[in-house]
Amino acid sequence: MSIALVVLAAGKGTRMNSDLPKVLHPIAQASMLEHALAAGRALDPERVIVVAGHGAEAVQATVADIDESAEVVLQQEQLGTAHAVDQARAALKGFSGDVVVLYGDTPFVSPETLERMIAARASADLVVLGFQAADPARYGRLVMQGDSLERIVEYKDASEAERALNFCNSGLMTCNAGLMFDLIAQIGNDNASGEYYLTDLVEGARKSGRSVTAVACDESETLGVNSRSDLAAADAVFQAKARAELMDLGVTLMAPDTVYLAFDTVIGRDTVIEPNVVFGPGVTIESGALIRAFSHLEGCHVSRGAKVGPYARLRPGAELAEDTHIGNFVEIKNAEIAEGAKVNHLSYIGDASIGKDTNIGAGTITCNYDGVMKHRTKIGARSFIGSNTLLVAPVTLGHETMTASGTVVTKDVEDGALAISRTRQENKPGYAEKLMDMLRAKKTRLKKGSE
Ligand code: UD1
Ligand code: CA
């Protein structure tokens, strides 16, 4: 059966109190919409339609980034969830498979749950995803009769008895596209909110003799985000789960609660992560690496046996080969550090390649930016860069080169050469003492003058 996802993302999210559309707020550094789309993609959908309204341009741009094949349709006015799905009608003209409705602000539904909904379609025309709510609050209530879902009643429209039910509507549902759009056409807005409720699909289906059922999932999967507190709570749920998964995979997190992961962080077995490490998007760490405390990593790859930190910053394009050492207060950006190379203290290495077993001394800086353009620094294997070397790019140093401490390298250095650029030191015997005496005498004079 081919599947079309219809992802509702037009709502304003007033309670977020934000210029950013609600569905673009991030959890673990990916927008909620991206999380929802990722779950939906597990169904291998033939079509993906995102219904945008508030902040549609921004939503469109994000969707284009995540999934080129996804289409965005506009819901000019937010007249309700049924009206929102109806905006996909034209785009899905001629599509004869099943529609799965997802919510852009319900990021945690699992692929397994979506698959269970699809499986339940074998025995029901319409399948709704529900959950037992610890606190059913203002969710729509699922009125069941045995295995059959009779109707969904919105909190605002519910009787006392119905409000006492705690089997709730997640909002997600699936049925054949033709049936869905036929039924939506019959839905009115004569209810407490004056909105076109997608939930009315259930009664419509039953009236036309169709079977309707509900599939249940854990409440954590239907966690909806309506406020910044909800967002933080959702992020915490994500983090807890992701940390537990990493530990199951054999990663040591010394203080799990202090490690902040991104949605796509990959860490290999027997890697140790010390406390207070932050992962931005796009980080892959191989097995047996050590990431020490207070390091910040994004868009980088750390190979087996590498040691990073404490207090290191790996920025996009940092590529650390096996057994490299990146020490404290070192920033690496868009640079390949070859096997066994070391950058141990207080350095900036950007737009560079550092050869095998090369040692970069403390305070070394690649001067990669001339104010307009970025330039590359290349250093060969087994070189020794003295402390406080400035490498003014573009510049290339060969294999087995050395630079004297404090050198400003502006010209290429050939294999085996030493580069030195600094004024020669001169020692003046006895001058230190003399100078001190002079300064002390001056201080005394000034003091007297001011009395
Ligand atoms: C909806 C359900 C409710 C369910 C709850 C679960 C209806 C009528 N009610 O209520 O039974 O328990 O979700 O969270 O469906 N949206 C649009 N366009 C619109 C209206 C909504 O795109 O015109 C989108 C929103 O951006 C959001 C989703 O649909 O992603 C749900 O809308 P929301 O207004 O939050 O519905 P609830 O009142 O929470
Ligand atoms: Ca909601």
How are the elements arranged and paired?
Elements: E1 3-9, E2 26-27, E3 30-31, H1 32-41, E4 47-52, H2 56-66, E5 71-74, H3 81-86, E6 98-103, H4 111-120, E7 126-132, E8 141-145, E9 148-153, H5 160-163, E10 167-176, H6 177-185, H7 201-207, E11 212-216, H8 228-248, E12 252-253, E13 266-267, E14 272-273, E15 278-279, E16 284-285, E17 290-291, E18 296-297, E19 301-302, E20 307-308, E21 312-314, E22 318-320, E23 325-328, E24 330-337, E25 342-345, E26 348-354, E27 359-360, E28 365-367, E29 377-379, E30 384-385, E31 390-392, E32 395-397, E33 402-403, E34 408-409, E35 418-419, H9 431-450
Parallel strand pairs: 1-4, 1-6, 4-5, 7-11, 12-14, 13-16, 14-17, 15-18, 16-19, 17-20, 18-21, 19-22, 20-23, 21-24, 22-24, 23-25, 24-26, 25-27, 26-29, 27-30, 28-31, 29-32, 30-33, 31-34, 33-35
Antiparallel strand pairs: 2-3, 6-10, 7-10, 8-9
Task: Describe, in short, the structure shown.
The protein is of the alpha/beta class and 451 residues long.
Provide an overview of this structure.
- The protein is α/β, with parallel strands linked by helices and about 450 residues long.
- It folds into two domains: about 5-220, Spore Coat Polysaccharide Biosynthesis Protein SpsA, Chain A (Alpha-Beta Complex), CATH 3.90.550; about 230-420, 3 Solenoid (UDP N-Acetylglucosamine Acyltransferase, domain 1).
- The strands form six sheets. Strands 13, 15, 16, 18, 19, 21, 22, 24, 26, 29 and 32 form an eleven-stranded parallel β-sheet that branches.
- Strand 2 and strand 3 form a beta hairpin.
- The model has no long low-confidence stretch (mean pLDDT about 95).
- Bound molecules: uridine-diphosphate-N-acetylglucosamine (UD1) and calcium ion.
